[in-house]
Amino acid sequence: MAKDKQESREATQPVGDAAGLPRSDTTAALLRELVAHLRQNRNLLREEWVVRIVEARLLTAMTREEIFAEATSVYDSYVEALETGTFEALQAYARNLSERIIPRGVETHEVVGIVLLLRDVLARSLFAKYQADFEKLNRILDAYEPAANRIANTVAVGFVQERERVIRQQQEAIRELSTPVLQVRERLLILPIIGVIDPQRARQLTEQLLRGIRTNRAKVVVIDITGVAAMDATVANHLVQTVEASRLLGATVIVTGLSPEIAQTLVTIGVDLGKMNTVGDLQGGIEQAERLLGYKVGPLG
Amino acid sequence: MQVPILKQGPFLIATIQAALTDADLEQLRSALLERVVRFRSLGVIVDVTAMDVMDSYASRILLQISHMIRLRGTETVIVGIQPEVAFAMVQLGLTLEDVPTALDLEEGLAHLQQKFATGSGAPGP
């Protein structure tokens, strides 16, 4: 263990110093030898890797040719990262790769899987090469394993980060699409809520509604939550607050479309909806709103 | 700063122009009560459009004004609460329960007129 530490410290020193050391097989030298070996057997190892990717049924969304092309680039960046000890190029490539393959439905386990496969393939070839000299094999692996693990880590993290970026982008897009405030009559607004309400969206909803009440001079607002599947205590309380804030602006709120499940949840968790004006469905809500506004709607004649 | 109180027919209108100190608020409370008695007003409108902060004390005074004036059989309407102020108030639990509210002065007047046009004892034009 102590020897290992000493070796890696030597490796961080400039090359000139390392060359002056009595032992020629420092980590850097071992890595150089390793890289030369990987360059020499590039075609063979790459082939074997692709075969094992296909066998393991990874990257099923891509054709064999595509896998081969990507494998070549990954292999070369991999060897380069081993050689130079810098991971920026590999990181950039991993991000670029993720950007291309995420829309095609490639999963995290596949990306991690192929990098681990490459590590295994290369380790096997090292076993094959140095099987006669166990001492040397050990030292080569000591140099190879930390670097290989770091590469695997870099690629996996790059992929996950890219994925998270895509998810964030989509969340943003959904948020922008959501929750129109619609005027259906003079002084009557409808706010249909569809989908999951998280605290951030709830807050945005309230802001939009309050602003809508002011600009449209609304007297009655119907909030329709038919499209909301579930509601927790936080969101329910936020809804109550929205109703109260609307009242402070002089508007009456009618909540419609509470599903049986939500009704049960709200009563079970004990949210006080006593102050809320609730009607079964949107139609009933609009009818009541019209009554409040003094409209009389019926068939002609 | 004193809050001007205008007499508009059977109603009183108090328009808050700027942020008020606690003393100003108390002064407003007594001045409004005194006028309601003096003019035998039917309704009072407190316009808070210019207030961009409503703390618990201010909201308690508004509540007290409403309750005290109700003892004279007179209704108080709070008008012009800003959307951001409204939501901040609700989050602090200041909901001005059972005090009528309206969007702006016009709405508040309409509310009072509607209420007292049908009620008995409203003075004729």
Notes on the protein architecture:
The complex is a heterodimer of chains A (301) and B (125). With 301 residues, chain A is of the alpha/beta class. In chain A, 67% of the residues lie in helices and 9% in strands. Chain A has twelve helices and five strands. In chain A, α4 (42-55) packs across α5, α5 (64-84) runs antiparallel to α6 and α7 (108-130) runs antiparallel to α8. The longest helix of chain A has 44 residues, at 134-177. Chain A starts with a helix and ends in an 8-residue tail after the last helix. The model of chain A is unreliable at 1-24 (pLDDT under 50). Chain B has a five-stranded mixed sheet. In chain B, α1 (22-39) packs parallel to α2 (56-70). Chain B is globular. Chain B has a single domain (5-118), classed as STAS domain (Transcription Regulator spoIIAA), CATH 3.30.750. Chain B has 125 residues and is α/β, with parallel strands linked by helices. Chain B has helices spanning 22-39, 56-70, 83-91, 105-118; strands spanning 5-8, 11-15, 43-47, 75-79, 101-102. Mean pLDDT of chain B is 88; it is low at 120-125. In chain B, α1 (22-39) links the parallel β2 (11-15) and β3 (43-47). Chain B starts with a strand and ends in a 7-residue tail after the last helix. At the A-B interface, α9 and α10 of A face α3 and β5 of B.
Notable traits:
heterodimer; A: 301 residues; alpha/beta; Globin-like; Transcription Regulator spoIIAA; 2 domains; 5-stranded mixed sheet; 12 helices; 5 strands; rod-shaped; disordered N terminus; B: 125 residues; 4 helices; 17% strand; globular
Provide the low-confidence segments of chain B as ranges: 120-125
Instruction: Tell me the CATH topology of the largest domain in chain A.
Output: Globin-like
CATH architectural category of the largest domain in chain A: Orthogonal Bundle
* Global geometry of chain A: rod-shaped
The CATH first-level class of the largest domain in chain A comes to Mainly Alpha
The DSSP helix count of chain B reads: 4
Tell me the Rg of chain B in angstroms. Answer: 14 Å
Number of domains of chain B: 1
> What class do helices, strands and sheet pairing of chain B give?
alpha/beta
Largest beta-sheet characterization of chain B = 5 strands, mixed
The proportion of residues forming helix of chain A, as a percent range, comes to 55-70%
Average pLDDT of chain A: 83
